[in-house]
Amino acid sequence: MKKEYYTKEEVDTLISELRKEMYKAFSNNNNSEIKQWFKLHSGRFQHNQYNLLYDGLFQNNLIIGPKAMFSKVMSQGLVAMEHGIEWIGAKNHCVYMFDQLEDHDIIESSLIERKIEKIFGIGRASKKKSEYKDNLSGLPRDYEKVDNALRPFFESITSDNLAIQDMIDNPDDYGLNDAP
Question: Quick one: how many helices (H) and strands (E) in the chain?
Fold first, then answer.
């Protein structure tokens, strides 16, 4: 501070600039930190598969935001709100979605609670999970919305994986081991 007296407008401007600097510093640290621990197997999935995931979530009123940013957010573990994507479904549905992604080996199980909080801003994921696990069914209410949203994504991954695995298991079917 260089002056002894500042007008209200000058103070507001200084505070606004300081907020921007702080936000930028914190968001840069968070994004680099996320990339180190997220590990969504980003090289395995194509953008059209992420588009299937986005379409399912969007059509089931679980998320809103630009489709073009969704694959980047999910593959790199970025903060969704900073890219215009917001989870609008029940918070326990987001937790359930991440559990399903883990069950299908889409994401690693380490630090799932932190992944949910950093990407979609939903805290206390383990508490939400234990609440629906304590139900008779062990599933959150209206879990079908999430299952319906994820089904096309899982089917596309399964069919791709089956084709690759079939080539590995049965190379003769593709003429790879034919005698010259």
Answer: 7, 2
pLDDT in tens, 24-65: 766 554 444 444 444 454 445 556 678 888 999 999 999 999
Question: Do residues 40 and 137 touch, judged by C-beta distance below 8 A?
Answer: no
- Whether residue 137 is contained in a domain is answered as yes
- Alpha-carbon distance 99 to 110, whole Å? 11
Domain with 140, as residue range(s), is 37-156
- Structural domain includes residue 25: no
Cα four-point dihedral sign 70, 28, 111, 95: negative
- 157-168 pLDDT, tens digit each: 765 554 554 444
What is the spatial distance between Cα 157 and Cα 85, in angstroms, rounded to a whole number? 23
Question: Which residues contact residue 53 at a Cβ distance below 8 angstroms, ignoring those fewer than 6 apart?
Answer: 70, 74, 149, 150, 152, 153
| 40 touches 3 (CB < 8 A) | no
CA distance 75 to 176: 33
